[in-house]
Design goal:
Oligomer: single chain
Radius of gyration: 14 Å
Keywords: Membrane, Transmembrane, Transmembrane helix, Transport
Number of helices: 4
Helix content: 55-70%
InterPro entries: BCAA_transport_permease
Structural class: mainly alpha
Protein name: Branched-subunit amino acid ABC-type transport system permease component
Organism: Pseudorhizobium tarimense
């Protein structure tokens, strides 16, 4: 869908692969709503971090990921189980 805006090249998926992995790690894999909320939260935090703190803005998403995984290691909407 974004081919007209972003262009296509063979390395296109590799540019965003780390973001995909972060969203799934933070959101969890038990529901669809977890990664959806994680994508929204991390996307807003990424843009806000790059806007308000341009020097360390690209690292805000990684700091937020570490905090979320410390607080909720199984994901945002993890079901009780094991």
């Amino acid at each position: 869908m974004g081919a007209e805006i972003l262009g296509l090249d063979p390395n296109f998926p590799l540019k965003f692969m780390i973001y995909f992995l972060i969203v799934v790690a933070v959101g969890g894999t038990s529901t669809v709503s977890g990664p959806f909320l994680a994508a929204l939260l991390l996307g807003v935090a990424d843009v806000a971090g790059k806007y308000y703190v341009p020097d360390i803005g690209p690292f805000v998403i990684y700091g937020l990921m570490v905090i979320m995984l410390i607080l909720r290691p199984a994901g945002l909407f993890a079901r009780g189980g094991r």
